């Protein structure tokens, strides 16, 4: 093998588009497999990074390699090393075919095989050069030799020095490099022969092509995946047809994508296997698809989904139902410049990853949904008046990186909630229970000065029913990972009573709008 495996899992975690493409391709393959033979799903694996951006394997054999280009295709006509790397990866892994995923209006070059053959000729010439240390020759003569000191992993993939670095596996003794150079030349010559059909080079499309389905953005990929999930469920769970709608499909897709990200995160933590590629079995994905989330309404995940669905639905209906606040019937038709605070905040919140979205919703309702009690979630009316309307009318309120919606005024931190308690003691009991059960919301105690609720007003709302909250060594350790503008204020006032104030939505509008 001459081309090193991809090992950029850490950067991949932030490269969402690539992940959506991978899931789409897997869903296409699962749809194909379940029509033929359900058991075949057990044999297939998605590999992230490793041989390529992602790959499809059947048992231990590579079937297809996939490279994802979300922007401009950088395989310039003169850039032979990139084309060589892709072709040689196909050959060294014995993959059946290779695909490029590009924007719809982008094309891939049509000279991969020719460029690879030419680059192999160049490499074979360079491999005949003498091997020297950098101190043995003048710098201006480096091009005449293979310089040991230039054998580095940071060199361009497919270049002479990158190949030698991968093959030598850290042993850069001159004698070892001389031995390995012979092996590299033999392997390159073998690949060159495989690219021929008699005396002529084979055509590019015998090895690779642009994928049949290409998308402009992640949302297009996801929507296409929703359709695939519905087709799969129509085959394996036809009795579900009555309740499967777009919201359900979106939720199921989110579970697949979140599980894929968990696989990648766990793989990256296990550094011993970082060069082997992160693998996820098709059967694991199929199991997620066929989990009956609709019947299992007790699950906390599904309740969070229902709450987020309600928020989005009410937001979409808000302009037409609140003509006193909105000029347009739909946000898309609004010509208000700059955009109102409601749109700005929802645009930010809508981009939160699912695992962070759950944390945001948890902090908004000040509790985790109770299993088996979906009716305890905030109703549509509460969401409309205490979340959507307030964001529309109060410019100071904004989503912050600490996963809460807050405003700062006169040195006080106002925090928006979705709390509909009718009595102060109800909220007191709820907060006591949650803070003792979870360490995820220390900001509720350490930062919040004023909680915005639906109907409660209380000047002296004392946390935990005591007169003082002393922050000692343990509490400071709890704060160490919290990023907040108010941490310095906390330290100055650590020995003072922790008293919050409660205000209802009407008073919040008055105080924060003056």
Description:
With 514 residues, the chain is α/β, with parallel strands linked by helices. It contains 18 helices and 16 strands. The strands form four sheets. The chain has a six-stranded mixed beta sheet with strand order 9-4-3-2-1-10, with helices on both faces. It has a six-stranded mixed beta sheet with strand order 11-12-13-14-16-15. A hairpin with a 5-residue loop joins strand 1 and strand 2 (54-58). The longest helix has 24 residues, at 246-269. It is elongated and about 85 Å long.
Structural class assignment: alpha/beta
- The number of distinct helices, counting runs of at least 4 residues, comes to 18
Tell me the number of strands: 16
Mean pLDDT across every amino acid position: 84
Helix content: 40-55%
Shape: elongated
- What is the CA–CA distance across the termini? 69 Å
Low-pLDDT parts are 8-14, 465-472
Main β-sheet, spatial strand arrangement: 9-4-3-2-1-10
Beta content comes to: 5-15%
Estimated radius of gyration: 29 Å
Characterize the largest beta sheet: strand count, sense, and whether it forms a barrel.
6 strands, mixed
Outline the secondary-structure elements.
Elements: H1 9-12, H2 16-36, E1 44-48, E2 54-58, E3 61-68, H3 80-92, E4 97-101, H4 112-126, E5 131-132, E6 146-147, H5 160-168, H6 174-194, E7 196-197, E8 200-201, E9 208-210, H7 218-236, H8 246-269, E10 278-281, H9 282-289, H10 300-321, H11 341-350, H12 354-365, H13 380-393, E11 398-399, E12 405-409, E13 412-416, H14 424-437, H15 443-446, E14 450-453, E15 458-462, H16 473-479, H17 487-492, E16 499-504, H18 505-513
Parallel strand pairs: 3-4, 4-9, 5-6, 13-14, 14-16
Antiparallel strand pairs: 1-2, 1-10, 2-3, 7-8, 11-12, 12-13, 15-16
Helix pairs in contact: 2-7, 3-4, 4-6, 5-6, 7-8, 10-13, 11-13
């Amino acid at each position: 093998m001459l081309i090193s495996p991809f090992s950029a899992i850490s950067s991949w975690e932030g490269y969402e588009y690539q992940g959506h493409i991978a899931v789409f391709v897997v869903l296409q393959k699962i749809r194909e497999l379940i029509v033929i033979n359900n058991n075949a799903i057990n044999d297939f694996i998605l590999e992230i990074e490793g041989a390529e951006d992602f790959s499809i394997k059947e048992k231990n054999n590579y079937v297809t390699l996939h490279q994802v280009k979300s922007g401009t295709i950088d395989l310039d006509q003169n850039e032979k090393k990139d084309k060589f790397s892709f072709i040689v990866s196909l050959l060294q892994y014995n993959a059946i075919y290779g695909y490029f995923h590009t924007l719809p209006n982008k094309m891939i070059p049509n000279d991969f095989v020719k460029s690879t053959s030419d680059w192999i000729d160049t490499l074979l010439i360079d491999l005949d050069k003498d091997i020297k240390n950098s101190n043995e020759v003048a710098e201006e003569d480096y091009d005449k030799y293979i310089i040991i000191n230039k054998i580095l992993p940071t060199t361009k993939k497919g270049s002479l020095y990158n190949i030698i670095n991968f093959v030598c596996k850290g042993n850069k003794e001159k004698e070892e490099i001389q031995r390995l150079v012979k092996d590299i030349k033999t392997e390159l010559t073998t690949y060159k022969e495989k690219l021929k059909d008699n005396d002529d080079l084979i055509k590019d499309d015998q090895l690779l092509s642009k994928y049949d389905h290409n998308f402009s953005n992640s949302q297009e990929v996801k929507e296409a995946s929703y359709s695939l999930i519905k087709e799969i469920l129509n085959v394996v769970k036809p009795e579900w047809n009555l309740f499967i709608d777009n919201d359900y499909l979106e939720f199921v897709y989110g579970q697949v994508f979140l599980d894929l990200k968990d696989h990648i995160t766990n793989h990256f933590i296990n550094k011993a296997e970082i060069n082997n590629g992160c693998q996820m079995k098709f059967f694991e994905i199929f199991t997620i698809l066929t989990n009956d989330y609709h019947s299992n309404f007790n699950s906390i995940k599904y309740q969070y989904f229902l709450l987020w669905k309600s928020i989005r639905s009410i937001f979409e209906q808000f302009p037409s139902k609140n003509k006193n606040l909105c000029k347009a019937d739909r946000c898309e038709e609004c010509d208000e410049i700059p955009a109102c605070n409601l749109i700005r905040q929802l645009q930010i919140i809508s981009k939160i990853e699912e695992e962070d979205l759950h944390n945001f919703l948890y902090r908004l309702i000040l509790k985790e949904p109770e299993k088996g009690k979906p009716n305890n979630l905030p109703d549509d009316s509460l969401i409309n008046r205490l979340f959507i309307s307030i964001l529309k009318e109060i410019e100071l309120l904004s989503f912050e990186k600490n996963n809460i919606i807050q405003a700062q005024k006169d040195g006080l931190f106002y925090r928006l909630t979705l709390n509909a308690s009718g009595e102060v003691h109800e909220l007191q009991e709820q907060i006591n229970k949650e803070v003792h059960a979870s360490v995820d919301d220390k900001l509720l105690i350490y930062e919040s000065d004023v909680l915005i609720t639906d109907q409660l007003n209380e000047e002296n709302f004392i946390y935990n029913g005591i007169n003082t909250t002393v922050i000692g060594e343990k509490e400071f350790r709890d704060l160490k990972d919290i990023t907040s503008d108010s941490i310095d204020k906390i330290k100055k006032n650590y020995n003072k009573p922790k008293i919050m104030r409660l205000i209802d939505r009407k008073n919040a509008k008055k105080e924060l709008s003056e």
